[in-house]
Amino acid sequence: MQQVAKLIIKGHAMTTRYANLLKPLDLGFTTLRNRVVMGSMHTGLEDRFYNYPKLAAYFGERAKGGVGLIITGGISPNRSGWLLPAGGTMNTLGDVAPHRLVTHAVHKHGAKILMQILHAGRYGYQPFVMSSSPIKSPISPFKPRQMSNKQILDTISDYAKTASIAKKAGYDGIEVMGSEGYLLNQFLSRHVNQRTDHWGGDIENRMRFAVEIVKAIRAKVGEKFIICFRLSMLDLVHDGNTMDEVITVAQALEQAGVTLLNTGIGWHEARIPTIVTSVPRAAFVDYTAEVKKHVSIPVIASNRINMPDTAEEILAAGKADMVQMARPFLADAFWVNKAATNRVDEINTCIACNQACLDHSFKNKRATCLVNPRAAHETELVYLKTKKPKKVAVVGGGVAGMSAATVAASRGHQVTLFEASHEVGGQFNLAKVVPGKEEFHETIRYFKVQIEKTGVELRLNTKVNREQLEREGFEEVIVATGVVPRALKIEGSDAPQVLSYAEVLRGAPVGQKVAVIGAGGIGFDVSEYLLKPEHQPQPQPLEDWKREWGVDANPNYMTEGGSVPAQVDHPVREIYLLQRKTIPLGAGLGKTSGWVHRAQLKKHAVRMLRGVQYKAVTDEGLWIESDGQAQLLRVDTVVVCAGQESVKDIMPAETDKTLAKFHIIGGAKLAAELDAKRAIRDGAEIAAKI
Predict the structure, then answer these.
(1) Global confidence as pTM
(2) CATH homologous superfamily of domain 498-533+569-642?
(3) Rounded mean pLDDT of 164-182?
């Protein structure tokens, strides 16, 4: 039974279903107002002092939105710890002033904030990298130097110094980053730590560095300062720690003076996905629950928790004391307030796509959010109430159109949204049926609620033309008519066995042997869709997912890093994935999620061919040419994923005189790669201006 609690919000008594989530947490010397933590994310704003006003606005908005505790992106304690050259560092009193902007913005709204201290170790993208042992990481270019005893001792005092400066800057505490494969994790685990001195060998020695850092920080900052430690509870790498070792470290950290224990899952180099959208919700919470049994300090659960019901269940079951979400606060700054006031249907849910957050971070671009382009751009993309309400038409109810319509209506314009089909959602209606993309349902739900809340007039099954729009007296017309799949133009391409990706994802019957033409994002999605057994429930049950990826299902695991041999079901179809380009297939997929898709197809024996010319479709199958040789692929069905073409026939020519002002956005403007990130941002930006 879910507890129901009464909350006082701005003088009004509210009954909420989230009693555990919204319960304060007393830490003895300070109290957190609820159990929700906004986890650490690198936005790129942390690295330059002149961006701190933007960073303050970003964190301030989340504090205003109700979150209890915020943790910043990683700040290095010294130069060798930089993630990037000249990355965010705190080691002089000159660093205090910009950070005070941030702490003030958060405290003003009643939340607490910790600064994360992160030493990248061998993950740094700079030549001064150091680690426990001189072993290069598979995901970064520089081989690290082994840290000397003096360098280790210096780093311990650098951590303590950084923590004391953070205290001066108004932070309520710090988080020591000890997971995800960064420096402290490199010491904690045999995967990198091959030392034979008293910093290596058994777990008591390997954890000495982390424990000494916590002791030094506690001695420097006193008792009334939060020290949170993010501990890897599941390494998911060869020679990783067992749960016994994780518990030994957790207990030693508690003894050393840690206030909160946070969860880290997997190293960045692990070949098991931990946060992409195909990972089931709260997939790793049982490992956190196992550690919680052995310590008396509060423990924080993390990874793929994105909605209040999931978070409340974790806390109600006693698996953790707090719940950490990072990307969900990019997607919706007001997540907590919406949960507290029973407006969960208004939450803009994180779909764990990584396209605008992590992928941006890894390209050294500012992080933002696919479903919320204002994230980390709060001072630049501003939705002000209009002084001159206009009559606005939006043509096309995909994500670009819905974004434009709802932002324009929220600003006070009179908006009508025209959609030719029977439902809104556009290409997201196709994406949501792909295995592992079930979260896309949430985005469509969010926009549907926004359409209602903002008072957009929605006209479904309505194909409009320019004349009608002019007749109805619209002053601004936003064209968001999207794309249609590009047809294949070869002999036999009109045969019944040739289908577009849209037909397949809408449920058209497909044979046992299939050729998929085009290996962009859609080609991969369609291949994954065709590999799914008919009876497989969606989303994939957690046990099946763990078995398929080789994650030890026993929370008290004895295996190296909690990984076991993967067991993959026999593929239900024989699939060829083809592309004209000679570059490797999937090269254009997202940096942090592409490898998951490539691995998924590989282990299901999908044959990937590149540098292919398509010649003809016959009753026998698909004729192709590869390396100058003609070849017949004996397939029953050919699925075309060879790109899209913009639909923009409603747009006037530049020479046409129109009463209304026309704007074009999303796929209608540019069909290259189905880019939902650009489509939603286009919609928001145009609606913010009109």
Answers:
(1) 0.94
(2) FAD/NAD(P)-binding domain (3.50.50.60)
(3) 98
